[in-house]
Amino acid sequence: MKSTNGGAKNHRLKTTVILWTIAAVVGIIAGLHFGGKHHLVPPQWAVITCDVGQGSAALLRTDDNSAVLIDTGDSPDALTDCLRYAGVERIDAVILTHNHSDHVGALSALPRELPLYTSKVFGTSSRAAIHLAAGDTLSWQGSACQLTTRILAPFGGQEPAANAQSDRLSSQPYRARREGRGDSASENNASLVSHTELMCAGSDPLTYLAPGDLEEEGVRRLLATSGDLSADVVAVPHHGSKGSGTALYRKVQPTVALISAGTHNDYGHPHREITDHLTAGGVALYNTAHHGHIALYRDTDQVRLHTSK
Q1: Which of 166, 162, 165 is nearest to 187 (CA)?
Q2: Dist. CA 117–CA 268, nearest whole Å
Q3: In angstroms, what CA-CA distances link 89 with 30, 84, 204?
Q4: Rounded CA gap, 127 and 115, in Å?
Q5: Which of 124, 174, 214, 275 has the most CB atoms lying inside 10 A of its own CB?
Q6: What are the helix (H) ranges across 143-233?
Q7: What is the distance between the alpha carbons of residues 254 and 284, in angstroms, rounded to a whole number?
Q8: In whole angstroms, what is the distance from residue 204 CA to residue 193 CA?
Q9: Which pTM does this prediction carry?
Q10: Angle between helices 22-30 and 76-86 (to 10 degrees)
Q11: How far is C-alpha 48 from the geometric centre of its chain's CA atoms?
């Protein structure tokens, strides 16, 4: 993996990636081994939004059986099922958007030596992480897909939350309350936001925006400070919460919007105002609560999808 962010941190981001087999991961997660039923995921998949219930996890493909993981969800079993669906046997790196349990709860089941990227808004433990901010760039040169990931937020001047330290990640993630309330909203708006271009063999580039749990304040800051946000695919922030508003989509102009939410969840996600806005704009809308794992890839000038349900 080649990773760059410029400045004094550049040497840290060139750390050699240690590839870990999912057999080892599964052993840690549930004492299981791969085998049994495999879903017919398209062999050319580029991005998968995992069905992890009321949480978030996504895979960005690098090689035939490896990927970068963005967030982990809260259920090791659900994450394992997604890895099986994808046929992923190696994780190149883990990118965490923010320290809420529905995004990072399954991290404790993954090998500690995996390269880990976060923002500064995390708590303390013995697990080290490389901190990223707007302007940093990561890249992975895989045989199936080449990834270039630009970090759009948080910004260098943003302060970490009161429970954060500079280079350690909490082993006790914060359990989020409803949007717009106190520390939960503050951490949501400090989410690590990434924009990835995937150049996969035999296809045109596919662009993917992962905005974490940004709410309206965070979205306003992103729109005011970022240039081109256009993306083929957007992960709908905060599971489709009304608190994230609709301004982001007018800037991004996605073809596909992906919602990661639990069936009959207690938060009312996704909110009808969000889904109505997206469908009225002609955006193809998919929800893990209804569609299960969602795999995407580009076929000439179209984005193709496959779902596990």
Answers
A1: 162
A2: 30
A3: 15, 8, 25
A4: 10
A5: 214
A6: 182-189, 216-225
A7: 9
A8: 23
A9: 0.83
A10: 150
A11: 10
**The two three-digit tokens of residue 79, written as one number:** 């994450």
Between CA 73 and CA 83, with CA 77 as vertex, the angle to 5 degrees is 80
Query: Can you tell me the distance from the alpha carbon of 251 to that of 160, in angstroms, rounded to the nearest whole number?
Result: 27
Contact assessment for residue 175 and residue 96, using Cβ atoms and an 8 Å cutoff: no
In the DSSP assignment, the letter for residue 159 is P
Q: Which residue type does 283 have?
A: V
Buried b (16+ CB within 10 A) or exposed e, 202-216: ebeebbbbbbbbbbb
SS3 283: coil
CA distance 213 to 183: 13
The two three-digit tokens of residue 292, written as one number:
């299960």
Domains of the chain: 19-32+40-307 (3.60.15.10)
Give the integer Cα–Cα distance in Å for 67 and 83: 9
At 240, list the tokens: 């489709």
Distance CA 196, CA 217 (A): 23
The beta strand positions in the chain, using DSSP E, are: 2-4, 20-21, 47-49, 57-63, 66-72, 90-95, 116-118, 127-128, 130-131, 137-141, 145-153, 168-169, 193-200, 206-210, 233-235, 256-259, 284-287, 294-299, 302-307
User: Under a CB-based contact definition with an 8 Å cutoff, are residues 130 and 13 in contact?
Assistant: yes
Residue pLDDT, tens place only, 144-201? 999 999 999 998 655 544 433 333 444 444 444 444 444 567 889 999 999 999 999 9
Can you tell me whether residue 107 is helix, strand or coil?
Answer: helix
- pLDDT band with cut points at 50, 70 and 90 for residue 269: confident
